[in-house]
Amino acid sequence: MAKRHAHGGRRQTLQSNTYRFFVPPESIRGDAVQIDDAELIHQISSVLRLDAGDQVLLLDNTGWQYSVTLSDVRRGLVAGEVGERALVASEPRSQITLYLALMRPERFEWALQKSTELGVAAIVPVTSERTLLADSGDLSERKAERWRKIIREASEQSRRGRVPHLAAPMPLATACAQAAQGGTALFLWEGAGAQPLRQALAAARSAAEPQQIALVSGPEGGFADHEREAAQASGVLPVTLGPRTLRAETAPLAALAAVLYDLGDMD
């Protein structure tokens, strides 16, 4: 891989393929950068084999990005100097929280990755009647850390300015009650009695200010009738994505992309 060394003044134009990493805001102090995270240091020094003079883009997860020229890359420490600081322009205006029912691990993780790429603001794992025991039995901190890593790496790859928040898993009833507290809350439903998604978004589409949208998406096998009734009673509106039945990992992504497009966040 060719090195990208910085020459000349402090204002450098980064290449589109410059490596991007999220770091804690305290890693950036004025023009000085110091990275202490062992995993990130290993990635920069041993996996990517970056060295002093190479440029990276660091993100502080508050919406700011910093072009950084590395000055010291060694075991236990990566340091650098900030060249430019700018707001990230890629974040959607609309804040969408995805209440995602647990499913087979590989499908759930794929949905985490792709929803992050599309622009979700927060993800809440949900258990429901048809959630398989094998999918909900291991909700350890180790599993949550793996999910957070998937989300963080997808955020870096897709040039996000913020890492979506991953909430603790919760039962469907709690999720629906939380979803209904503000903004537009939508329940993906493939049965009778659901509004078309575009119709349900009419009010949000006409609003001038950024919108808060909650999407509640079901497990493999879908939601039970009584779960839809309870969700509707709590103020979450059943919506349909059309006549075709989508997989549990496909439906939330189709809905998320449709909402972002409909609200003008994919222009």
Brief descriptors of the model:
14 strands; 6-stranded mixed beta sheet; 8-stranded parallel beta sheet; single chain; alpha/beta; 267 residues; elongated
Major sheet details? 8 strands, parallel
Helix/sheet category = alpha/beta
Strand content: 25-35%
Q: Name the helix and strand elements from N-terminus to C-terminus, one letter apiece.
A: EEEHEEEEHEHHEEHEEHHEHEH
Helix content range: 25-40%
Silhouette: elongated
pLDDT < 50 runs, ≥5 residues = 1-14
Number of strand elements: 14
Distance N to C terminus? 33 Å
Radius of gyration: 21 Å
Tally of helical runs:
9
- Taking all residues together, what is the mean pLDDT? 89
What does this protein look like?
This protein has helices at 38-47, 105-118, 133-136, 141-157, 172-179, 197-200, 202-206, 225-233, 251-262, and strands at residues 20-22, 28-29, 32-35, 55-59, 64-74, 77-87, 95-101, 122-127, 165-166, 170-171, 184-188, 195-196, 212-217, 237-240. By secondary structure, it is α/β, with parallel strands linked by helices. The strands form two sheets. Strands 7, 8, 9, 10, 11, 12, 13 and 14 form an eight-stranded parallel beta sheet that branches. It has a six-stranded mixed beta sheet with strand order 1-4-5-6-3-2. A hairpin with a 2-residue loop joins β2 (28-29) and β3 (32-35). α2 (105-118) packs parallel to α4 and α2 runs parallel beside α9 (251-262). It starts with 19 loop residues before the first strand and ends in a 5-residue tail after the last helix.
